[in-house]
Specification:
heterodimer, A: 324 residues, alpha/beta, Rossmann fold, Alpha-Beta Plaits, 10 helices, 37% helix, 28% strand, B: mainly alpha, D-Maltodextrin-Binding Protein, domain 2, 6 strands
Chain lengths: 324, 391
């Protein structure tokens, strides 16, 4: 389909240009794309968000994590100005959020929904018109190709499977080429093939300079994709930073895992050894350089494998949620 | 951000006018009225023709046949004639007729057939008085004792005519006005609840404010309602101008009704639609919303329920109070205009109160809409409403 190829090429050029412009608008000022300051929200006597502050930098995938009822959706709705906060403010590109910023945000809510009685094209066109997309037909075709549903353009939404509808909804979030994407559980309900399609789209968008806020319970995806993470529980910030920072701050003493041949002897800077004969976990004293430990180990045993063990995000999530 | 409001309005308008229900409300009057218009002459002819041949089986021996009534010797012969369509119906007069007055009418039925009881009565009276000395004029009076002519006097003692038509007009105006307002407001309520149920509302609110969304819906559904009422008015004009009703309508303030129908429709629609948005926004299901909207529906049809009072005394205290109550004003005022000359100040005050109420209700509904539209799984409770207003 030469027409579609041309569309795709033109759109890629357009996207690249838009990314440069977005970079010029956001990146050069070094200002956070989004800044949440002292956000507080209560429903009745229940405090949902308690003095929450954080910022999101340009071009990053920012993980928003927390157990059910932690306040993630409320926070997203406040960021989007769908509901009002009791206290605090949201700044976008250095300015206090107003309605005009909505055209620069793409949103995939956790509760999926589309108009069932109209065609896929009509549905996407309505959303595109609301976002003030200049040439909606081209953009609709581009995104339908991208999510592999171009053949369903004129089909009624109700004729599509749940997974297909989810991809249509994703397309509706991307259709206006937003600077910021807020994706609430984008992988839920998708099979592995479609999960890969969505993941690849997200990484493409990141490469194009888009900022992505990823709210998810799928810790493995968050661990692999997110540059920084905010975990909230009961409306309070419990973890915030890069994955390395979070993992480093989570365990008091780092753990080195080794597979070896020979006799393992006590080593300076190692406070405890869990020895299994050919495999051992060494608790390093805080401040100990792992390189020194390795050098000492190599004097007494033949090393076949070694690595610094860090807790998975899933383990951290469960522990933090349980402690809270 | 008028652009987004208009995008919503266009979407809702097109979505509404394409629905089967809406198309049906436009076509139904055509389907009903046009055949009635074009077949009324035929029906009249059938009605006139049908009693021409009536049979009778007389067991008293006092009846004589005439141009319409044909004698049959027994019921069997009469039945055969009826079944062979030689006669339209027949009566049997039993021997004890003079004591009991009882006769039996047989007919084959049919869509346009009606029992010729008037003709039968006249036939019997003529036969009973045939050999008496009663004066011909008196016979006529016995046949038809009263030709009742109803005359109504207005407040100046002047004679008002065509009262029977005037009785129908306010009823039709009120019904049509409220039908259109309620239907259109109902579409809005359905639209809001449907977007809550299919979870699209959150996507919409990430693109525009709740106020823009609500305004767009009000305009979109209101335009569909306005289209509906305009089509009905055009149809009404077509029917009236093609029938003998035209002369009668000229006597009534039709032009004033037409002029006032539009602002009363628009303000009435905004009031009811805004009120229904208040109950639709917190509702989780259509059933919940309909229960909540019941109070507004009842208020809306109150003037129709009190039609008798308003027709009997269009300038009474009740009628005037209903003119000033926003929810009853549209129907009441238009009904009163057809019945009496309402002072201009009353119409102006009614419109002013209605307009102020619309502003208040729309503001309240926008606030409730913003605070309650994303709520789900809760029943609507009146005591929760102040909470929705505060947030």
């Amino acid at each position: 389909m030469p027409g579609n190829t041309n569309n795709k090429r033109m759109f890629t050029i357009w996207q690249t240009a838009a990314a440069v412009i977005a970079g010029a608008q956001v990146g050069q000022t070094d200002e956070p794309v989004l800044e949440v300051l002292h956000l507080t929200k209560s429903f009745g006597t229940k405090t949902i968000l308690d003095d929450l502050s954080f910022h999101i930098e340009s071009g990053e995938i920012f993980g928003l994590l927390g157990p059910n009822g932690a306040g993630k959706t409320t926070m997203i709705r406040i960021i989007l100005d769908i509901i009002k906060s009791d206290h605090g403010s949201v700044k976008m590109f250095g300015k206090v959020f107003d309605e005009a910023f909505k055209e620069r945000i793409g949103y995939l809510p956790e509760e999926r929904g589309l108009y069932q009685k109209i065609t896929v094209f009509e549905c996407l066109k309505y959303f595109a018109n609301l976002k003030n997309v200049k040439k909606p037909d081209d953009r609709i075709d581009f995104w339908l190709e991208k999510v592999d549903l171009i053949d369903y353009r004129k089909r009624r939404v109700s004729d599509l499977s749940k997974g297909m509808q989810q991809k249509i909804q994703l397309a509706s979030a991307f259709i206006h080429d937003p600077d910021i994407l807020i994706l609430d559980e984008p992988f839920s309900g998708l099979d592995p093939v479609n999960t890969k399609i969505v993941k690849d789209i997200m990484l493409d968008l990141k490469r194009d300079g888009k900022t992505i806020i990823l709210s998810t319970h799928q810790m493995d995806q968050a661990e692999r994709m997110c540059d920084r993470i905010l975990m909230i529980n009961h409306g309070e910030k419990v973890l915030y930073g890069t994955l390395d920072q979070i993992k480093a701050g989570y365990r008091e003493s780092p753990v080195m895992v080794v597979e070896y041949e020979g006799d393992l002897k006590p080593i300076d800077g190692v406070t405890g050894i869990e020895d299994y004969g050919r495999y051992a976990e060494l608790d390093l004293e805080r401040g100990t350089d792992p390189q020194d430990v390795l050098r000492n180990l190599m004097e007494s045993v033949k090393l076949r494998r070694f690595e610094m063990k860090s807790p998975s995000l899933n383990e951290i999530f469960i522990e933090v949620a349980n402690v809270a | 951000m008028l652009r987004k409001t208009l995008v919503v309005a266009k979407h809702e308008f097109l979505a509404t006018v394409k629905t089967k229900g809406f198309i049906l409300t436009l076509i139904l009057p055509l389907v009903i009225l046009l055949p009635v218009m074009f077949t009324s002459g035929y029906v009249m002819q059938i009605a006139t023709d049908s009693p021409r041949n009536i049979g009778f089986v007389d067991e008293t021996g006092i009846l004589q046949p005439d141009g319409i009534f044909t004698r049959f010797e027994d019921i069997g012969d009469a039945e055969n004639a009826l079944l062979n369509s030689e006669i339209k119906s027949f009566i049997t007069i039993p021997p004890d007729y003079l004591e009991t007055g009882r006769v039996v009418l047989y007919s084959t039925g049919g869509f346009f057939s009606s029992a010729p009881t008037g003709l039968v009565e006249t036939f019997l009276i003529d036969n009973l008085l045939r050999d008496s000395d009663v004066d011909e004029t008196l016979v006529d009076r016995i046949r038809c004792p009263a030709e009742v002519e109803q005359i109504t006097l207005d407040e100046n003692g002047e004679v008002e005519e065509k009262q029977e038509v005037r009785f129908l007009i306010p009823y039709a105006v009120a019904i049509l006005m409220m039908l259109s307002i309620m239907t259109t407001s109902g579409y809005l309520m359905q639209g809001i609840v449907a977007e809550k149920e299919n979870k699209t509302v959150e996507i919409l609110l990430s693109s525009l404010s709740p106020e823009e969304l609500l305004t767009g819906k009000l305009i979109g559904f209101g335009s569909a309602g306005l289209l509906q009422i305009c089509v009905w008015i055009c149809l009404g004009i077509l029917v009236v101008s093609s029938t003998s009703l035209a002369a009668i309508f000229q006597e009534i303030q039709v032009s004033l009704i037409m002029i006032l129908a539009i602002p009363y429709f628009i303000l009435g629609y905004l009031l009811f639609a805004g009120s229904m948005a208040c109950v639709a926004a917190p509702a989780s299901t259509m059933k919940d919303a309909q229960q909540g909207a019941m109070i507004f529906t009842m208020l809306g049809i109150l003037p129709i329920m009190l039609l008798g009072v308003i027709i009997a005394a269009p300038d009474s205290v009740i009628a005037r109070v209903l003119t000033y109550i926003p929810y009853t004003a549209p129907a009441t005022t238009l009904m009163r205009i057809t019945l009496t000359g309402i002072p201009v100040y009353e119409i102006a005050a009614s419109l002013l109160i209605l307009a102020i109420s619309v502003i208040v209700v729309i503001r309240l509904s926008a606030r409730i809409f913003r605070n309650a539209i994303l709520m789900s799984g809760k029943k609507i409770r009146l005591r929760d409403i102040p909470g929705y207003l505060k947030r």
